[in-house]
Amino acid sequence: MSSTSFFIIFLSFTFVVLLQEVVSVDYGAALTKSILYFEAQRSGKLPPSQRVQWRADSALQDGSYLRVLGGYYDAGDNVKFGFPMTFTITMLAWSVIEFEKQLEAKKELSNALDAVKWGTDYLIKANPQGSLLYAQVGDGDTDHACWERPEDMTTPRITYAVDGGHPGSDLAGETSAAFSAAAIAFNKSNPTYSTQLLTHAKLLFEFAKSSQGKYSDSFPIIGKFYSSSDFKDELSWAAAWLHRAMNDQSAIEYLRDEETDRGDVRSSFSWDDKYAGAQILVAKLILEGRLDESDETWAEYKTNAEAFICNCLGKGDNNIQRTPGGLLWFQPWNNLQYTTAAIFLVQAFSDYYTNIQSDFPGCSEPVTTGDMYNFVQSQLDYILGVNPKNMSYMVGFGSNYPQKIHHRGSSIVSIKEDNTPVTCQEGLDIWLKKDAPNPNVLDGAIVGGPDKFDAYLDDRNNYQQAEPATANTAPLVGVLARHAAP
């Protein structure tokens, strides 16, 4: 590396350090917006409590003959992709489970639970039988060839479902995890609903084990957008959540089985790779004294979990790359989804160690839970504007945030302001290409974020960086709650 490059990196780090000394980030305001974002992503008939007023009812035909009304639009399009949606719901529920006290303190617990329930109500409809699960509503190809508001979209609402003849252990496993996590989240406030969710969780876990295969192999056409790399991680993830939800011993036996894949040390945690999450859930049981660490199987889970955390902290054997400004960097396409998921795991694991009053072991140098908290805060601050560009990557937060995000509903005038239908081609010719800020602010959306050199291009066609997604924001809800009310 040249001396000039070293100098630029030095200036970037110096800039961030100085900025952190003078900037106070309002995590509470960011928390409120992060939950509000999910209301803007709602599909179906909106409730009277709807706060995002530029949205209106949409995709009502999903309920009229498909019987899967509701749920969430995944990102900037109008398809309901089941795989990332179920991960989103699991992470929202996990946020409630781990940070319920903080959400309550910031008066956001009921809103967070509403966000979870909007998703689980849809998943209940999508799982009318234990061995039948709708994987997607909408056609990705035709949807991506159009630019329409969800309220007046004209693209086909094709459905795909996994069943005994079309395996989808990954989708069924992740949906089971979402049901289990949500059951825990609703256990106190709505025990009847919690029991209903657990029934679905158990049935889907058994279905995922008995009819094994990747959902994207069963339906290659939907794998073009969210292809699954494996299904064994979702089986472990589902088992870990089922055990946590109801102390299911068969789930523990599954995790203990010698044929179950432990996942080794992961390079990321996301909608496609759940191993790190499952490892951390097992490690929690060890820390609580509920599993014996002298057992090599359980020790392997915990060791792998700790190694992932150390790599995030930059104190491991295979550290995750960072931008010159200090942001965790995983890949060019929608990098922030991996960053937010990773810092959720770091914060949750840090709190597990805080509860047993122990420093964190296993890294290349000593790490305290305070170090972990500060690291998470540094990543939060970067995302919310403490970075070389002084740009918040949460839409609507701060004075400088992305204005031209890749999002159909946000980029087209609200149907409540102008109810003239926007056709597929009009949307592409007029609204996608319009060189102006989006007319509707998608508060709380986390875009894909900067590149590995901290650069960001605010352009609606820049879908690698400028498209937000529900999986980006969901993990951040819990982290923001933890730092808004420490």
From TrEMBL:
InterPro entries: 6-hairpin_glycosidase_sf, 6hp_glycosidase-like_sf, Glyco_hydro_9, Glyco_hydro_9_His_AS. Keywords: Carbohydrate metabolism, Cellulose degradation, Glycosidase, Hydrolase, Polysaccharide degradation, Signal. Residues 1-19 form the signal peptide. It comes from Acer yangbiense. Its EC number is 3.2.1.4. This is Endoglucanase. Pfam families: Glyco_hydro_9. One of its GO terms (molecular function) is cellulase activity. The keyword Cell inner membrane does not apply.
